[in-house]
Design a protein that fits this description.
Strand content: 5-15%
Radius of gyration: 27 Å
CATH superfamily of the largest domain: DNA primase, catalytic core, N-terminal domain
Number of domains: 5
Largest sheet: 5 strands, antiparallel
CATH class of the largest domain: Alpha Beta
Structural class: alpha+beta
Shape: globular
CATH architecture of the largest domain: Alpha-Beta Complex
Length: 597
């Protein structure tokens, strides 16, 4: 097996790469001020919203949200893996890609080991399926062929409590690794009293569906019971590799099968995805036992602007559809087709496509309700439109939903549609809704329960600080004690600390080089988003001042007492600058008891 590509080589490669040349070789770019623009290659558009920053060595599409470095672009555009993208850039730069054996970061080696363990478990389950007549017969009854099972790597976890343990858990380290990826469970204290200490298999007597990431690596598993039993579907837990609010089952397979994905169909189950694919509908994906999240939606919009949410027609299906609609509202804008299809009672996509075939099923998709119509019809069903009270109630139900939709043509047209139902002029309804720019209620809006607005609050402050480090790595020099951020134990502050340390270790790092150091880690996608976000056009010194103030505030909020002790210790050993002296005085004033009256 080829060794890991050294991190230092990736830094050098990106330093020698001009992202404008790389993207320009595949997409016609035009100069626009300090940046370059084009029609986005990842979604259909007539007005260019795809920008390439030579300074950041980053691309970003304001239409679909695609973003990343030159390596990310090659992986996304050419549909290749990370090693292939590196080879492409290296050949352009006239470099030989080196490989290393054991010099990788320990965390990287651990992640590689976990991926390798999942791959071995995947092979183990597939082999078990070949040997189980009962499991094969079940799949045949569900209408699946051997070719489909092979394409989706379907497998089988036999009955018994220690199948995976026997195969891969011969040592303590092996058992701990199995627990880390969620394939086994450690017995709780009550179980230990009756059954003894140790672990047992999570998946037993289930058809196994491996969940693969964008590079085809197995990050987790879903298991479906063959006979009656609960839960019907069992998923891997959250692990260092698997985050169910981010992954979509079937997306990797869809992108492998289709050169261009015109639309995505979102369904509820693994079997729905597989059965639809066998019927020739290769663009179905499933969320993993959870409601559609903003991360799910963002990933899908990077692939296509046409998404159909398909749910069972029962009460649970209708509730799931409405939750998906609420998630979609902040992304509802012109150019995007977000639709909803509720199937006949008693049917799911798996059974319906088997009964009526591909053409009839796709005809249903073509007639799915657009988001606007589904929103209006759903709310109208809850009121009496024949009465003034009912129409007023409809307006009140729609108000908070309209406030979440971005300003633009789509919101104006939806407002017109609501106005017809309420039977009042659209401009007057807009006044009553008091919609300001960006979809938020204006200052004239009636008082409503206070809610922390976007862009404020602790989580946002951490994101803003991270964005400044990513986009202006040289600004990290302003932070003297990044290790203090780790003391809070908050993951966001730990990431910020590590980014600052990365940037301080090499003052010449570009934003692209800094982000690439986090590839293959769970935070990478979010860091790419923050690196692409627009920031004020300041120099590194000004950004450094902002970053320093943000870090001081975060440390104070994380624990004023600990921060006070730290500043006192620093004052005694190495001295404080003016800002830190002022911060020390403020913290001491907070600690001082109030004067007696």
């Amino acid at each position: 097996m080829a060794g890991r590509i050294p991190r230092a080589f990736i830094d050098e490669l990106l330093a020698r790469t001009d992202i404008v040349e790389v993207i320009g070789s595949r997409v016609p770019l035009k100069k626009a001020g300090r940046e370059w623009k084009a029609n986005c290659p990842f979604h259909g558009e007539k007005t260019p919203s795809f920008t390439v920053s030579q300074a950041k060595q980053f691309y970003h599409c304001f239409g679909c949200g695609a973003h990343g470095t030159a390596l990310s672009f090659l992986m996304e555009h050419d549909r290749v893996g990370f090693p292939e993208a590196v080879e492409d850039l290296a050949s352009r730069a006239g470099l030989e890609v080196p490989r290393e054996g054991g010099a990788a970061d320990p965390r990287d080696r651990l992640q590689d080991d976990l991926f390798a363990l999942n791959a071995s478990a995947d092979a183990h389950f597939r082999e078990a399926l070949k040997e189980s007549e009962r499991a094969k017969e079940y799949l045949k009854k569900r209408g699946l062929t051997g070719e489909t099972a092979a394409r989706y790597h379907l497998g089988y976890a036999p009955p018994g409590w220690d199948g995976i343990l026997k195969a891969f858990g011969a040592t303590d380290a092996g058992r701990q690794a199995l627990a880390t990826v969620g394939l086994v469970i450690e017995r709780n204290p009550e179980q230990q009293k009756s059954q003894g200490q140790g672990f047992y298999d999570r998946f037993r007597d289930r058809v196994m569906f491996p969940i693969r990431d964008s590079r085809g690596r197995v990050v987790g598993f879903g298991g479906r019971v063959i006979d009656a039993g609960e839960p019907k579907y069992l998923n891997s837990p959250e692990t260092p590799l698997f985050h169910k609010g981010r992954e979509l089952y079937g997306l990797y397979e869809a992108r492998q099968q289709l050169r261009s994905i015109a639309r995505l169909l979102v369904v509820e189950g693994y079997m729905d995805v597989v059965r639809l694919a066998q019927s020739g509908i290769h663009y179905a994906v499933a969320t993993l036992g959870t409601a559609t999240t903003p991360e799910h939606l963002n990933r899908m919009l990077r692939v296509t602007q046409d998404i159909v949410f398909c749910f069972d027609g029962d009460r649970a299906g209708r509730q799931a559809a409405w939750r998906a609609l609420e998630t979609c509202l902040p992304e509802a804008k012109q150019g995007r087709q977000l639709k909803f299809l509720l199937l006949p009672e008693g049917h799911d996509p798996d059974t319906l496509v088997a009964e009526e075939g591909r053409e009839a099923f796709e005809a249903r998709l073509d007639s799915a309700l657009p988001l606007s119509e589904y929103l209006v019809s759903h709310l109208a069903a809850e009121v009496d439109l024949g009465s003034i009270d009912g129409r007023a109630r409809l307006a009140e139900l729609a108000r908070p939903l309209m406030a979440r939709i971005p300003e633009g043509v789509f919101r104006e047209l939806l407002l017109d549609r609501l106005a017809r139902e309420v039977r009042m002029p659209a401009p007057r309804l807009a006044e009553l809704f008091a919609l300001g720019p960006g979809g938020a209620p204006s200052a004239a809006a009636p008082a409503r329960p206070a809610r922390r607005p976007p862009g404020t609050g602790r989580g946002s402050l951490v994101s803003q600080a991270i964005a400044r480090v990513l986009q202006f790595p040289a600004a990290a020099a302003a932070i003297k004690n990044p290790e203090s951020l780790r003391m809070s134990g908050e993951r966001g502050l730990e990431v910020l600390a590590e980014l600052i340390e990365n940037a301080q270790s090499d003052p010449h790092l570009s934003p692209a080089q800094l982000v690439e150091r986090w590839r293959d880690r769970p935070e990478h996608e979010r860091l790419e988003e923050l690196a692409a976000a627009p920031l004020p056009d300041f120099d590194a010194a000004a950004i450094g001042g902002e970053l320093k103030a943000a870090v001081a505030k975060l440390l104070a909020e994380a624990g004023p007492e600990r921060r006070l002790d730290e500043l006192i210790a620093r004052a005694e050993t190495q001295g404080l600058d003016d800002d830190e002296k002022r911060e020390l005085r403020e913290l001491q004033a907070l600690k001082r008891p109030p004067p007696r009256r």
